[in-house]
Amino acid sequence: MNWTTEQAQAIYEDGKDILVAAAAGSGKTAVLVERIIQKVTRENDPYEIDEMLVATFTNAAAQEMRTRVGQALEKALEANPQSHHLRKQLSLLQKAHISTLHAFCIEVVRKYGFELEIDPGFRILDDVESDLLKNDLLQETFEEWYGKEGDEQAAFFRFVDSFSNDRNDQEVFDLVLKVYEFARQHPDPFEWLDQLAESYSIEENTTLDDLDWMPIVRQDIKEKIDAMEFEIHQAMETAQMPNGPAHYVDTIEKDLEQIQQIQSALDLPWDELYTFIHEHKTFARLSGKKFECDEEIKESVKSLRDQYKKRLQAIVERWFSREGSAYLSDLKKIKPQIEQLVKVVKDFHERFQSEKKEQAVVDFLDLEHYCLQILSDGKDETGNDVPSYIAQQYRKQFKEVLIDEYQDTNLVQEAILQLLTAGEDAGQLFMVGDVKQSIYRFRHAEPSLFMKKYKDFMQEEVQATRIDLARNFRSRKEVLDGANYIFRQLLDEQVGEMNYEKEAELIYSNKVYEKLTTTNVDCDLHIVTKEEEEAEDVSDEWKYLKAAQIEARVYAEKIKDWIENGQIIDKETEQPRSIHYRDIVILMRSLKWAPVIEDELKQMGIPVYADLSTGYLEAMEIQVMLNVLRIIDNPIQDIPLASVLKSPIVGLTEDELAQIRLKGKRDSFYQAMLNYIRTGENEELIRKLRHLRGLLESWREDARYGSLSKLIWKIYRDTAYFEYVGGTPGGKQRQANLRALYDRARSYERSSYRGLFRFLRFIERMEEQGKNLASARALGEQEDVVRMMTIHSSKGLEFPYVILGAAGRDFNKQDVRGKYILHKDHGIGAKYMDVDRRILYDTFPFEALKVATERESLAEEMRILYVALTRAKEKLTIVGQVKNWEKQLEKWNEVANHMEWVLPPHTRTDQANYLNWIGSALIRHENSDSLRTSGLATTIPEPIRKDEAQWSVIRTHASDYMDPEWITAERDEQLQEAIREWKPDRLPSRSEHYDEVDRRLRFSYPFQTSAERRAKQTVTEIKRLRQPVDEYGAREVVSNQARLSLDRPRFMQSGGKNLSKAEIGSAMHTLMQHIPLQKLWDDSSLQEFIQELVMKETLTEEEGEAIDRDAILRLFSSEVGSMLGRAKSIEREIPFTMEVQASDIYPDWEDPTEESVLVQGVIDCLIQTEDGYELLDYKTDTITGELTEEKINQLRQRYETQVELYQKAVESIMNIELDHVYLYFFDKDLLIDTIRE
After folding, report:
1. Which of 155, 297, 657, 915 has the highest CB neighbour number within 10 Å of its CB?
2. Distances (CA, A) of 240 to 253, 254, 267, 324, 1203
3. What is the DSSP letter of 20?
């Protein structure tokens, strides 16, 4: 393969730590794999494969990497078959450390868990069991705290009152859990918790400037003041325009002077700044004298002035509405609550850890923390981890540690990596990633680790190397130019946490796209506006469309056009081909709109699949099943019962439900149902209700004694609900959801929890907390459908055509809307609750952390946008909606004359959604005339104006999407009408495929009997099939699933009398199999022999006591005993298998071709005498009544089939002829010769 210079450097560079900053589509995985291969196969000082630790982000990536390394080794071995080294590497490959970091942690903890007294056979908790255990232990923790007395109880009560609402303590539960989980993202959770309380410690001489949160606040104020200065300059320039309000200029100049004075005072101590701000917070009035000017320009200046005046007012209200001493007083008041929070979290942490150790279970975070504890011997004086002897061993073993997706590493994982690689005696660290794609902040990924190394590794004094892989082999030049143009303007350290450096810009490198130049591949920005239409002939029905519906119809229009007219370059053949649905993906920040969009696209004939991670519990089929489980658990629940009655499981109408309710107006609905069964008038309704009652009784019995998963599958089977949903729209997905419910029930039962009641409580808790279970996947990779997924789900994937939808939706700010905010570096910021007056106050740390969190969220959103734009290979389209187009344009045009590449910070922070960012970025491009309210200023630097990016801006109105082509809706309506009125002439004309479709639908399998009959049978089963039912038989060859047995367990029973007849018969046969046949027996010797069999565990004690010794002694004293004594040889318990024609076994065989059936059996006894061979079969049947000739014939007929098969088997397999086939009945000492008599 032809590697670029940078790729080759990343593959072959050696002897130092290396950071590879690999942009999207730059082939970083290929480079990582090649580096491993080169290290192992090079001639000079090759590595052993197990001398490298390779950590990937997913198990799938690890397996793919292992496979690629294996293929490379095999290829190298073909070229050098004599190499013992390569052979050894192949043999070591499956033991090589190529896995996720979690898998490595598991290995370390299992191997060295004894150091922490951890059971090496520990089990990993799944999310279900972990949540259940947490909730139980948290409940236990709170109950104990509620039970404390004195000051401890008072402090706890005040803490609960401060963070709960008036109804319950759920908010406090959630707080404790969140703080606990947040703390565990830190290498030392207790240290982080202690810092929470310490940060609220206020001494007598403490000022606001001493607080850790102050730099955040001052930076926020500075940015707001800078934004005001920017807007003042804008107002000044506008006022000085021809026909502008020149009489406003003096006032605006005074405003500028006032703001500059504030800027110069920002470094003053807080108390002095407080005074200064209040002295300068009022602006002068604009001149009121009459002045001829353009009214639009005048209003624009006034609007800009109002804008920056409001900014200053907001600063005053947020930071200077109270004196510093008041903020400090808040901290003193809230400190006891924070200290109590820390105590409760630590208490819960210890309980949880203790319980997990007792149960020998761990969760995923435990693995990292335990691994860190095993590898560390505590901290040194500088606060760094000291490697343990185990870490030293790993340092000697691993010459190199390679980690993929390094930008998503968290603090605990980084500590583990440092213990493995830091120090002169350790191997080198090779890190690959792209910090611009670090989008897992919610998983506590720490992109700052990557950014710090990115800067440090360029310094000469640092013994490490940074390599930038910027060449993109994924996308067309148009896509890359479009993305580069946007991110040059969005990313900087102030807002985006990083600069979009020249070295990191995407470079077009895949020349194969030049084979197809006829397709329109410019990046599209499609804006749908919603302002009032002036045209009278336009209906206003568009106002009643949901935003998701409008968006879906825009997508449909584009997708249809692409499918009909578009072409792409095929990845395999590298030649142009038509676009398929699977080549298109719709990316969204969240899938809240997905169900509506999915429905709309399907209505318009576009196959689409949304991999929803939400909505599972709300799915209709899951709600119905959960309601069935609820009424099994407790039928006195009106809403679940009514839901089941109305569902297809029972299928009642509203009128029938009303009839039931009238039978018990004041009773529960279940009682009303029972009343209707007794006294109702509608026989059909009574039948349905009786059937449901019977099912509920059966299911309740199964729920009481059986497993939950089996109960769920039994409900599917008893009601045919699983098959029913399969025939409804989206049936494949619905059935997948029902299967997932069954699988989740099995997962639940594998935990330490049991029972239907607890399972339902767990589901209800998830619903209360707004959590969900991911819906089951029901889609193959190659299915030809349009995919709809979140941007997070698309990471690592690529698609020829990408639509980024819902770009006009504002970002979710839920993280900063609660009563508290958690931050990895700055602890907790909580609002202060005056418990006595129930008044909630914002506090200084809360507002500071709100600023910090919002800023970090914006930086992450920029990285998420980068991931979205770089998924596209050939075409990128962004769709967003705007309510007020003129106002939006005005906002975007505020930066139309901005002279620097990067947009002003306030533009990026104030207009926080993707559409605003992209719109503001395109304003200064020469091809974006449709976005500008005035001409493009020539003073804008040429690289910005004339950039190679090609963006097409399309603007349509929502009214354009009122009447889509409802393909499926029209088709369904015509079909329903034709069927309802039974008018075949209204059906569509028959297509050329009609006859073939008709043949297939009418097809009848010609070998149906073969499908319904077993291909292997036992002699006993055939006898039961062919003969009348007796007390030992059954009516079916394969019985239905047995009902749950409620017999007492065998260990609680005593005496042989409790054995069944079949068990006694088996015991008698076992004795006859082992007893010496040519010995003289009496009762004493026989009893002694039975005891020997019991001692050898051939018989159980109960079976030994159940043996009928008199019947055995009668046999030996009878003609049978004499025959056994005279025998030349005897073979006992002879198993056989033979092939028999199916028509000989099954009387109703109808298949046109003859089939064979395997018959298996065991012959009790084959005797060779002087005259020939005789077969003897023992029977333990109880013979009732007088022993007449008729009774003997009945017994012969009962076993006729069995005897025939035994005879046929012996004679055909052993090639002998039987002289006699005897049946011996112990009960009457009866011998029947089935051949001679």
Report:
1. 915
2. 12, 15, 33, 41, 117
3. E
The segments of the chain whose pLDDT lies below 70 read 1, 166, 533-538, 612-616, 752, 766-782, 965-988, 1026-1057, 1236-1237
Using only C-alpha atoms, the chain has a radius of gyration, in whole angstroms, of 41
Residue 1221: strand pairing partners: 1175
**pLDDT for res 1034:** 37
* CA distances (Å), origin 1105, targets 894, 987, 1058, 1083, 1108: 100, 77, 11, 13, 8
Residue 671: exposed, middle, or buried by beta-carbon count in 10 A (0-12, 13-18, 19+)? middle
Q: How far apart are CA 261 and CA 258, in angstroms?
A: 5
Cα within 13 Å of Cα(817), Cβ side: 4
Contact 521, 949 (CB under 8 A): no
DSSP E strand boundaries for 470-617 = 471-472, 507-508, 523-529, 567-569, 576-578, 584-588, 608-610
Q: How many CB atoms lie within 10 A of CB 613?
A: 17
3-state secondary structure labels for all residues of 895-939: HCCCCCCCCCHHHHHHCCCHHHHHHHHHCCCCCCHHHCCCCCCCC
What distance in Å separates the CA atoms of residue 404 and residue 433, rounded to the nearest whole number?
Answer: 6
Helices 756-768 and 708-719 meet at what angle, rounded to 10? 90
Q: Which residues contact 12 (CB under 8 A, 6 or more apart)?
A: 35, 38
Per-residue pLDDT at 476: 92
Distance CA 153, CA 166 (A): 19
Do the beta carbons of residue 926 and residue 946 sit within 8 Å? Answer: yes
How many whole angstroms separate alpha carbon 632 and alpha carbon 697?
8
d(CA 1, CA 67): 18
User: What residues have CB less than 8 Å from 339, skipping those under 6 apart?
Assistant: 197, 200
Model's pTM, two decimal places? 0.76
Per-residue confidence (pLDDT) for residue 165, from 0 to 100: 75
Cβ of 1138: how many Cβ atoms within 10 Å? Answer: 16
The string of pLDDT tens digits covering residues 830-864 is 988 888 777 888 899 999 999 999 999 999 999 99
β-strand 400-403 against 428-433: which pairing, if any? parallel
Contacts of 324 (CB under 8 A, 6+ apart): 207, 208, 270, 271, 274
Tokens of 939: 């003073």
Instruction: Give dist(CA 557, CA 567) in Å, integer.
Output: 17
pLDDT for 1048 equals 44
